[in-house]
Amino acid sequence: MKIRAGTSIIYALLALAVLGQGCERPDELGPYVKQLKEVDKFNAELVKYRYLIKSDQADKAATLAQTIEEYLAQLETFGHTRDKVIMAGHNALKRKLGTSLKKIVEPDFPTFTISALKQIEIIEEGYKFHIRALQKRWDEEPRNGTFDLAWPGQE
Q: What are the DSSP E strand ranges found in 23-63?
C-alpha cells in the first residue's frame, strides 16, 4: 500500500514539474521573418526582370531561371520550424518557385517574355499570400517592432 502511494506522489510531482517548466512555445515567427527579409534581394531582382521584359529588353533577363534557382536554394537553407502556419506558407512558396522553374522556357524561345512574366506573377502571388499569413500572425501576437515584409514597390 505504501509503495502505491509513493509512486502516485512521484507521478504527481513529475506532472507538476513538467507543467512548471512552462508551456510557452519559443518565438519562431520573429526569427523567420528576419530570415525571410534576406530574400528581398531576389524579389527586387524579379521586379527588375519584369521591368526589363516589359520594356522589350528580354535579352537582359536571360538569367531569370538562375535567379529563381538561387531564390529556391536560399529558401532551402531555412531551418525547420514546428509552427504549422510558417511551415505551410514556406513550403507553398518553395513549390511556387519550383513550379516556375520547371515551366519557364529558354530565353531564346519566342514565348520567353510571356512565360517569364507569368512565372514572376506566380512567384509574386505566392510570396504575397505567405506574408499576409505571417502579417496576421504578427498582429495577433504581442510583439515589439513592425512587420516590414512586402513585395518591392508595394510598401
A: none
Q: Give the predicted TM-score (pTM) of the model.
A: 0.80
* Residue at 20 is within a domain: no
**Cell numbers for 30:** 520573429
Helix pair 112-140, 40-54: axis angle to 10 deg: 150
Over residues 4-59, the pLDDT tens digits come to: 666 766 666 566 555 555 556 677 888 999 999 999 999 999 999 999 999 988 88
99: Cβ contacts below 8 Å, ≥ 6 apart: 122
Q: Write the CATH number for 102.
A: 1.20.120
Grid coordinates representing 110 are 519566342
Residue 112 · residue 65 · CB < 8 Å:
no
| Radius of gyration of the chain, Cα coordinates, nearest whole angstrom | 23
Assigned domain for 147 exists: no
12 is a domain residue: no
Please state the domain count of the chain. 1
Work out the burial of residue 36: count CB atoms within 10 Å of its CB; fewer than 13 is exposed, 13-18 middle, 19 or more buried: buried
C-alpha cell of 131?
506574408
